[in-house]
């Protein structure tokens, strides 16, 4: 792929009026906690809440009159689908999006709301792509690939132009990697402006295809990932070539690290982010020694996380931080025991979330009962203080984070 800084600058002029120049904000709490100067590029504030709208619009603006009349088609289960649908409808171009059959309904609905016709086919992205290409040829539509297209890559690269205008002295830019379009475009733009700026890539261990290719090893794929937006098994060869030449470092992180990254962005910076930027923050947290004293930019590439998944993630994060804990009591099966426990917990300033009273458990004697109380506390020292108060009242209990 022979894209240049000038190509991306020209594309930025073309898409400027129809895309959001998203803010680059300092992450004050995370910067303090991590000991670095961390800035977040809020692409979750785009019209469709993800950077993909940039590349989709860039491609649409290259179409001829006949291609516009024939409509466009894409294969995507998420951000690319919505970005293409939004801008195609705005430009008066008919759009069709092929999604795997297991795509969550809310993603289907959002894509339809932006004006696209949705076709469900296949059990995976790879199956859907082949079907999409066949459908495009059959019906005379233009296929818009989510990352394997120079016009799309040019659009994604405009993110870096904005970041280096907003913070010209960035030392490192961390970019999530799926098919490689975002980081390839950003690397071309950033290195064209500032050859000394470091570009780091972040991948999920379960889908580390680009890192495997760069390292010259066979990729290992393992199940699902929270970072579904970057769960790509076959990155574009042209993007990988750019990454090989211009990207300084690629790191992978575990699912638990990605989950913690999403939770940290929400709890510390009040930002709703999907798994991909969580992977980026996880890479930063894992390699703080290398980033010490540096000004680091992280692309919050999307915020389209399922609300049910987010609610579970929040609860798990509270458990992980020791703010939600289960207390299991062995009590005499007599009136007033629960009232005593509730009073002590309430006096200590904690909230009772759930109570389960077990009289039939074989592990306790006939005249006793087992009581599970799930509480929400301020932090781990608060839990320890509550536990001490309960034990001082003569209560027997054990703690568990299995809530």
Walk me through what this model shows:
The chain has helices spanning 5-15, 28-34, 52-60, 65-70, 79-90, 105-113, 125-139, 150-166, 181-193, 209-215, 237-246, 255-269, 275-286, 288-291, 307-320, 337-347, 380-392, and strands at residues 24-26, 37-42, 72-75, 95-99, 117-120, 142-143, 172-176, 198-204, 249-253, 295-300, 324-332, 351-358, 368-376, 396-400. It has 403 residues and is an alpha/beta fold. It has three domains: 5-51 and 150-316, Rossmann fold; 53-143, 3-Layer(aba) Sandwich (Rossmann fold), CATH 3.40.50; 323-400, ACT domain (Alpha-Beta Plaits, 2-Layer Sandwich), CATH 3.30.70. Helix 1 packs across helix 8, helix 3 packs across helix 8 and helix 5 (79-90) packs parallel to helix 6. The mean pLDDT is 92.
